[in-house]
Amino acid sequence: MTLPPLGDYLATLRTATPLVHCMTNYVAMNSTANLLLATGASPAMLHAPEEVAEFTAISTGLSINIGTISAHWAEAMLTAAATAGQHSIPWVLDPVAVGATYYRQSLCTRLLALKPSVIRGNASEILALNGLASQGRGVDSTAASGQAIDAAIALAQKHGCIVAMTGESDWVTNGTQHYRIHGGHPLMPRVTTLGCGLSALVTAFVAANREAPLEATAAALGCFAVAGERAGKTAQGPGSFQVALLDALYQLTPDDLTAHTQLEPRHAV
Amino acid sequence: MTLPPLGDYLATLRTATPLVHCMTNYVAMNSTANLLLATGASPAMLHAPEEVAEFTAISTGLSINIGTISAHWAEAMLTAAATAGQHSIPWVLDPVAVGATYYRQSLCTRLLALKPSVIRGNASEILALNGLASQGRGVDSTAASGQAIDAAIALAQKHGCIVAMTGESDWVTNGTQHYRIHGGHPLMPRVTTLGCGLSALVTAFVAANREAPLEATAAALGCFAVAGERAGKTAQGPGSFQVALLDALYQLTPDDLTAHTQLEPRHAV
Amino acid sequence: MTLPPLGDYLATLRTATPLVHCMTNYVAMNSTANLLLATGASPAMLHAPEEVAEFTAISTGLSINIGTISAHWAEAMLTAAATAGQHSIPWVLDPVAVGATYYRQSLCTRLLALKPSVIRGNASEILALNGLASQGRGVDSTAASGQAIDAAIALAQKHGCIVAMTGESDWVTNGTQHYRIHGGHPLMPRVTTLGCGLSALVTAFVAANREAPLEATAAALGCFAVAGERAGKTAQGPGSFQVALLDALYQLTPDDLTAHTQLEPRHAV
Lengths: 269, 269, 269
Description:
The structure is a homotrimer.
Chain A lengths: L5 H11 L2 E5 L5 H11 L2 E4 L6 H7 L2 E5 L5 H16 L4 E4 L7 H11 L5 E5 H9 L17 H11 L2 E5 L3 E4 L3 E6 L11 H15 L4 H22 L3 H14 L2 H7 L1 E6 L2
Parallel strand pairs in A: 1-2, 1-3, 3-4, 4-5, 5-6
Antiparallel strand pairs in A: 6-7, 7-8, 8-9
Protein name (chains A, B, C): Hydroxyethylthiazole kinase
Cofactor (chains A, B, C): Mg(2+)
EC number (chains A, B, C): 2.7.1.50
């Protein structure tokens, strides 16, 4: 079976430098912007109800992350997601800690109704989002990635979207076709908001490669997997890891990405 | 006199990975999360009135920092602190720049009434909090640590809590028993929000070691003192210092902490 | 023609450690505080309407950046800028992405009426601010710096302020006297919020050197140009560049700044 040429999607991203409208949490804003810039996309963070629709409409993609949600932000996110839908702009949902509180579950139900192009979460979040019943513990995943694969596939089928579930190994699925991606490094969960930043990077890849959202999502995950492995080779802890990850994403070439991503395609489970 | 085995408190923290609900300022959110993750705790940042009580109730500890306070945040902090009290969850107050404005003084008066387990501040802040009269200058300390020891002890006695006062050397007191901690590095005040992050780390230590809050607070300060010294050995400025500090906290072993913290116990002043 | 002694302005800043009240965007807060601390100023971030005027009045300078603006912040910025005017405290406006939405244009019109001491932006922003007509694309500049020089001079004349326009090369003008500054490094646009941080550094320089705002602004730009070149010599990508930039700003001496800034004075265009 032929593997998708992941490097091509990175090359396209770098040529297009997609403008990614990021509505993300306060913890992740700076690191997300730096991850996008290092890889080759153009981030913009803004959220005021007075301007959010106007800006989403001129963006290439929209990334929504509910990490530090509050009422005004929630309304603006719903407006932005609806605007993205009206203009056929791809948008990505990162349902941070959706299992932790009723408020998050209620907001995610409303966001799901606006049809995200991709959902990116850890196993706990994917389980919670699929069932809106599972118990998450804060923002870190406690469920094993393997346990949640069925939930990811069901979620993709139910909402007609891509689901990217990340953890020790990553899964990406459109409900019928799936990829497993290996790589990364054990230090990655010791650096805050890498998952949030990955959701924004997925947005950039999908926005720049609209004809192939499943493969573009896999390419974004591949960037983190390959750059993460490389960063881990020199890092002495989470501080130097984070610095090395940005450098590795910047240095990563399309050929690197195609050659070194440990991608395992799977059809119909 | 026998010194407390500070490393034991770090070992307990790493086993327990306490979930620390952080309500902190925008400047400190990312660095605080990274400091907690590097040391071995699990941070979660959220603040919406719709969910804050629900989440505090499932947390191991609560860290409140008023750095970039505004009305909605203040109300949510009061709700969270009250919830922590109801569930006997330890919580820590960081009264950033409390001397600078009447608004901060008024909010801290309300927070103190909710009985924090620990107060962590610099000398200016401890003086201001004790007197609610002293003049602070922004967020950096201008009063010498030594001058404020009486205020720290008085504050601990008045509110039945631990007070950790940090500066060139640190003091921790429960009003009758005190420790002085030496160490750290002159570059530490040149990196923003390390004090804010330390307050969250104190929360993690106290939450994971509820039987010994005074010693657990000393252990948190010891981590910064020892890791700060180590980071200072390779740093060429505040940029590389911050990176090296995260690495040093990650690499720090319980034995290191016990052996290298310059801890000086003092009874009844 | 004699060049201004840029190093003298840095020496003054380090002696005075000006307290810079920063009202900036969520993405830039941490990096801005670190850039100010590394160079030698004292940052403070706060924005509540309940305290903002009280705090601006005791600050040495005020830095306003509209990056992640919303209604409460906008009102507080207007209050702070008015307070700065009443107390003759220098203040700097960073009109992030002013061309992108009507909301930003409307807010900037109100802020300009409060007479900023300095405006710092990229070419797109300066063009948009001068015309309140040009089309910006998000937060990154798309117009060439050269194209916008006339706009910068016109803006300075119209509002009786300094305009600092940064890009591949920088311009600073008071409407009649101008400097061009070369230096920096191609990695600088790949690190988020360096421009935002530079606006705050301009505030610190102008606050500490009130008798020479044009030259003090040039000195701030010179710090970034010289430190940026040095950081670029060791950086392997945007991660290590950001770390090295903070170290280089910390290590930069007044003599370095005077000797190595590539400053080109120009009179009456």
